[in-house]
Amino acid sequence: MELSPTRQKLYTIIFGTGTPAGKRFDMVLIYLIAISVLAMILESVSVIEGRYGVWLNAVEWGFTGIFTLEYLVRIYCSPHPLRYMRSFYGLVDLLAILPSYLGLFLAGMNYLLIIRLLRVLRIFRILKLVRYLSEANILMRAMVMSRRKILIFFSAVLVLSTIFGSLMFLVEGPENGFTSIPKSIYWTIVTITTVGYGDITPQTVIGQFIAAAAMLTGYSIIAVPTGILTAELATEMQRERTSRRCEDCHSSGHESDALYCRYCGTPLSD
Amino acid sequence: MELSPTRQKLYTIIFGTGTPAGKRFDMVLIYLIAISVLAMILESVSVIEGRYGVWLNAVEWGFTGIFTLEYLVRIYCSPHPLRYMRSFYGLVDLLAILPSYLGLFLAGMNYLLIIRLLRVLRIFRILKLVRYLSEANILMRAMVMSRRKILIFFSAVLVLSTIFGSLMFLVEGPENGFTSIPKSIYWTIVTITTVGYGDITPQTVIGQFIAAAAMLTGYSIIAVPTGILTAELATEMQRERTSRRCEDCHSSGHESDALYCRYCGTPLSD
Amino acid sequence: MELSPTRQKLYTIIFGTGTPAGKRFDMVLIYLIAISVLAMILESVSVIEGRYGVWLNAVEWGFTGIFTLEYLVRIYCSPHPLRYMRSFYGLVDLLAILPSYLGLFLAGMNYLLIIRLLRVLRIFRILKLVRYLSEANILMRAMVMSRRKILIFFSAVLVLSTIFGSLMFLVEGPENGFTSIPKSIYWTIVTITTVGYGDITPQTVIGQFIAAAAMLTGYSIIAVPTGILTAELATEMQRERTSRRCEDCHSSGHESDALYCRYCGTPLSD
Amino acid sequence: MELSPTRQKLYTIIFGTGTPAGKRFDMVLIYLIAISVLAMILESVSVIEGRYGVWLNAVEWGFTGIFTLEYLVRIYCSPHPLRYMRSFYGLVDLLAILPSYLGLFLAGMNYLLIIRLLRVLRIFRILKLVRYLSEANILMRAMVMSRRKILIFFSAVLVLSTIFGSLMFLVEGPENGFTSIPKSIYWTIVTITTVGYGDITPQTVIGQFIAAAAMLTGYSIIAVPTGILTAELATEMQRERTSRRCEDCHSSGHESDALYCRYCGTPLSD
């Protein structure tokens, strides 16, 4: 499907990031999203809502209008509108405006809970920012590559939490706040991740002993995801470094700022 | 000892993981274990137990039956039944069904505590999952290789905890919650691992000073297991990567998805 | 601009670190700053202030005099006085003495809050120490080099905190302490960084489930800054270790196995 | 100074670790220290002290006798008795027995506090174990090598804590628990190290904002000591690994347990 010149130009500005106009568009959008999210966060503070509620409501509708326009233009200038609408970013863009309109639709009725839900849902507009964060691709690649290992690690953490949680439920029992195994598992996760709220704490000597064991376990397995990611990141960084080759002696591993091959002295091309 | 064809076939399915049937058997078992553990966790919630207790009891016996069958078939088709029964996984498989039967045996009596113990013990059925987790062998190897260093590290943590615990017992004393040295050691472990429940906190100025010193110590030794494991993991990963060699120029360090030697261009065998 | 011999000599002592006199001057200054900050910290303890207030006040004015003298001499002997005054260290040196004089100026009036503010502001005198800390340039360089990645990481943490905070505000609501989205975001940061005060804790089952998810997320992303910095530090350390210099272009940072300078191609001596 | 054969033999057993007798002596001593420390820990529990106090007292004197004997024999068989007595381990060995005798000396008087102090001081006997832990020399070397960097890091943490603490004292003030700057610094260390007791928490909005900033700072600088140590450890491990070279093909990078060169199959010399 061939695009008209106008649509092609719009596409370069809105979807592209290479041209100055495209970059300016992205910057403006980032600021708009940030301000819009800030306004919604402030709206949730009852003191501010009471005093500036009308203003915040107006601001909110202004932003909804802008993001609706952005969504429609994106559909208009995309070469594959349906594919865009079904993509992750298309759904996020829709989610960013839908709750406001649904709230309008349900305003007559008194479904307070649903309205509250929709209000908060609008904040997922912040996900629109992910489009720009994801350009940090070294981090992403390192995370994707260690995905499987991190999954196995999480399974191990869950198995550990179940075992420690059951033990604590057995030893401490409902009289010390460990009212059920799910709650004990919640306590174990709070402990193993070293968060430690202190809303539930072991009271018996055996319970404190098991808790200490759980902490030391958590303390030592905190090393695992760090180790995995560090090793991957180091590899990623090294690969970036070793992607330059000497054309004469075919050696690699040159720093990105090197001008001459460090093994044979031949000038390096970029 | 030669196995009959039926037993050999069963062995391939149940113990093996290479054939499609073996993989399917493993997947079914993983789901059964997960559901069974979930049912037991829910049973511990008194509200759910009161309402669906009968159903959960029935489900429980169903699972006990399935796992008993699995245990018997494993014994039947294993080429060395006794060795299997005495192995780690054999004991775990036994432990996964024993508490249910013991509970039946003791139901007549009123040993409430023992019944509660047996109920919770059934949850160790989750250890059956370790069989599948342990396939994550890079992680395991890195952990096993840094075993000695981590042990020394834990000894150092225990010595530190004893010293800091005794000091706090001396400085704060029973009137501020540090009722005995074991309790003070428990507090030190809670602090050094940065869990920090806040159930016992230093009240005197000197106590808070020592606590701050303990925290900074903990904060800096948190680096030790991470450092050990990261260094081991990096080595393990590098080894895996460098385990492929070019047959022509004998260079190593090829990525696992490389098809050609990156030094001389010769196709790489697997 | 040519400096007179006296000013040149003073400049070498005060700004330089190479000569014995310069080193001695720096050491004296470090001790003076440390004692002065200590005196101010002690002054904030009401018991000590009540008993030794007069003495601490005298000590304070002594230090203010010394630092004022230092500031004036620095201006006098600097070859570019204005550039020094506008630099980071020049502003810190001014900030270290200004609050004391402002306090004198406002002593007649009863602006208690402002006086308290000025009192505490004097403690920023501790920033004068940064001049000496910043000599630790491996750490600094590693941090500066991973600056961009850490910024992206913080953006990701803020996006995550907003999402988790909004969810908790929705699920737990004002009745369980989550009175507004900003407060919920504060709670999420407390949780994700594994601080876990326990002043606000989830009470509902769904809330505890989301909290556990937030903790595990925090636990796994704690690895990211560590990984980034470790990889950078390892590179920095390796580069420093290989501080071999090219005799021709005087560039450093050559790997230990390099035979030729990577900037000008001259053979490297050992 | 020449030693008599008996003293030489004793020296090999007591100070050496190479002979079977020396190893057995070390093992026995480790167990004795562990049991002795355990007895003292139990003695601090008032319930146990009340019931088994007489027995624990007897056990304690038995151990004091054994360690006194060990100390005297060490002095007797050491080739440089004075140098041993003034060394770190000599002082620890003395400290391990001194409090018991001092306690006897002061038993007539009623200096309860001093007796309590001496009682707890005996627990430093655990430091005798350091002699055996310190054989973990890779860890030690990595720590000693990154000593300077870790010191600079701690200075930076203290400067940060002072600044954040002063700010919190200013913003929250004594009415919210931040009664003085030292207490606020204590709170900042509790927060930055992610311990988070929750005994003092920010109540004002600005205070919570500053607290969140402190947490994120702490979260990101937690990476620094980890990074330093990991980089050092990785270097140490690599050095150990690369210190062996094949004499035939001159390749390096052989594991410490390899017997043959993994590149050409030539037996490796140690």
TrEMBL record, chains A, B, C, D:
Residues 24-239 form the Ion transport domain. The chain crosses the membrane at residues 28-48, 54-76, 88-107, 150-171, 209-235. It is found in: Membrane. It is a multi-pass membrane protein. The keyword Membrane applies. One of its GO terms (cellular component) is voltage-gated potassium channel complex. Keywords: Ion channel, Ion transport, Membrane, Potassium, Potassium channel, Potassium transport, Transmembrane, Transmembrane helix, Transport, Voltage-gated channel. Its main location: membrane. GO terms for molecular function: voltage-gated potassium channel activity. GO terms for biological process: action potential. SUPFAM superfamilies: Voltage-gated potassium channels (SSF81324). PANTHER family: POTASSIUM VOLTAGE-GATED CHANNEL PROTEIN SHAB, VOLTAGE-GATED POTASSIUM CHANNEL. This is Ion transporter. It comes from Pseudomaricurvus hydrocarbonicus. The lineage of its organism: Bacteria, Pseudomonadati, Pseudomonadota, Gammaproteobacteria, Cellvibrionales.
